Amino acid sequence: MSVTRLACSLIVSALLAGCWVKQEVGQRMQADIVAMQTELEVIKKAHHEEKAKLQQRLEEADKHIAELDLLIERHRKASGRNAADFGVEIEQIKSKLMELRGVVEVNQHRLEIIEKRLSIIHDDLASQKARAIEDEKERQKVQEESGKKAEQGKDPLAAIERPDEVKAFYKLAYGLLEAKQHKAARRLFEELLAKWPDSGYSDNALYWIAESHYAEGSYREAALTFQKVRAEFPKSDKAPDALLKLGYCFHAMGMYRESLPFLKEFVQSYPRNPNVGKARKKIREAQKGLEKAKSK
To answer: Which of 9, 168, 243, 273 is least surrounded by CB atoms within 10 angstroms?
Structure first.
């Protein structure tokens, strides 16, 4: 692997590692990576310097050889020197070549050491990245499990299995309402309406949502929902009760004048309803409340 390719791989590995880790691990890895990158730059610089020197020495050797060949030829022609003299010069040339070869081998060994160190740094970064990824996965798993437990602790319905049939679903919600678990019952009735908007239980579900608000003293929300029952299901058997409870809501809020039209309409429209007596009692109470307010 070349130094350039190793350097590129290291940079990419460092960037990828930074994208996977949490903040504490990321800071620790960043410090390690910066140190390794600094060491890498030093090694790269030394590598380039050694390579440049080696190239220069090789070029000088080639130049010397060419010059010596030229000198030998000139000496041979000009002086007619004997073979022994040329033999001495040739041995000197061989000696210089051996020295240059030794330098080349030393530099080559240094380059191999640099390549190995770069490979070790690369493997170390890859190992740190792998460990960081595993740590992050483990942290996310723990966090998800903690979140699920916390959610189950906050939501009493989290552990309740929802029936697949509308009748059983309605029965489950109504049972919670009878147990005075108004919020839980309201949630289930709302889920029923969302899942089966056109079922035969829709009017009752909406009515009991209104009743759950009324039981909690949220009279405004109750009034709005009772009115919705009347508007969406005017022929439902819950429509008379919704009308009566509208009067109750305004009465409970001290809005006696506003409660009277609903209470009187209930008495007039449903004279045989068993709750007519309760409606008349509320009418009398509302009228007394208005008279008391006038006297002040």
So the answer is: 168
Among candidate residues 47, 26, 215, 51, the one with its CA nearest the CA of residue 136: 26
pLDDT in tens, 122-133: 676 677 777 778
Whole-angstrom distance, CA of residue 50 vs CA of residue 54 = 6
pTM of the model: 0.50
Q: Is 255 left (phi over 0), alpha (psi -120 to 50) or beta?
A: beta
Q: What DSSP character marks residue 274?
A: T
CA distance 234 to 247: 17
173, 190 Cβ separation under 8 angstroms: no
**Do 279 and 246 meet the contact criterion of CB atoms below 8 Å apart?**
no
Q: What is the spatial distance between Cα 177 and Cα 215, in angstroms, rounded to a whole number? A: 10
How buried is residue 140: exposed, middle or buried, by Cβ count under 10 Å (0-12/13-18/19+)?
exposed
Read off the tokens for 276.
């007519």
Spatial distance between the Cα atoms of 257 and 285, rounded to a whole number of angstroms: 11
**What distances in angstroms separate CA 255 from CA 248, 279, 287, one per listed residue?**
10, 15, 11
Q: Which amino acid is at 156?
A: P
Q: What is the mean pLDDT of the chain?
A: 80
Instruction: Answer yes or no: are the C-beta atoms of 16 and 127 closer than 8 Å.
Output: no
pLDDT for position 244: 97
**Region class of 163: left (phi > 0), else alpha (psi between -120 and 50), else beta:** beta
CA-CA distance, 140 to 67, in Å (whole number)?
A: 72
Burial classification of residue 94, based on how many CB atoms lie within 10 Å of its CB (0-12 exposed, 13-18 middle, 19 or more buried):
exposed
CB 20 within 8 A of CB 129: yes
Phi, psi angles (nearest 5°) of residue 271:
-65, -20
Helical pair 239-252 and 276-295, crossing angle rounded to 10 deg: 20
